[in-house]
Specification:
Strand content: 15-25%
Low-confidence stretches: none
Largest sheet: 2 strands, parallel
CATH superfamily: Glutaredoxin
Strand order of the largest sheet: 1-2
Structural class: alpha+beta
Distance between the termini: 13 Å
CATH class: Alpha Beta
Number of helices: 4
Order of helices and strands: HEHEHEEH
CATH architecture: 3-Layer(aba) Sandwich
């Protein structure tokens, strides 16, 4: 699946409330091909409107497709940890991120 992102010219990164050490362990355990950024005070997560109002210091699952010029082309914000788009929905949304709409 990750190759499809690269082929489309999309770079991936995650941001979570966990520490740098926890993120490093998660990347190693899951062999993730993208970085996980640490936001333990939820500053960025809060500014982007994805802080979970029901649980302190927990982020909602969210995906933002950001164009090279900084504009947001795709947004998905779930309600809980299991609320995620399927691959087809995600790739359809990210199609708008890539210049010229190429996939």
């Amino acid at each position: 699946m990750w190759d499809r992102f690269r082929e489309a010219g999309v770079e991936l990164a995650a941001i979570v409330v966990d520490s740098v050490e926890q993120n490093r362990a998660m990347i190693e355990k899951l062999l993730l091909p993208f970085p996980i950024l640490s936001d333990p005070e939820s500053r960025v997560i809060g500014e982007w409107g994805v802080l979970n109002d029901r649980e302190a210091n927990i982020a909602k699952p969210a995906i933002f497709g950001i164009r090279p010029d900084g504009t947001i082309a795709y947004t998905y914000i779930g309600e809980d940890f299991a609320d995620r788009p399927d691959d087809d929905e995600l790739f359809a949304g990210l199609k708008e991120v890539v210049p010229g709409g190429q996939r």
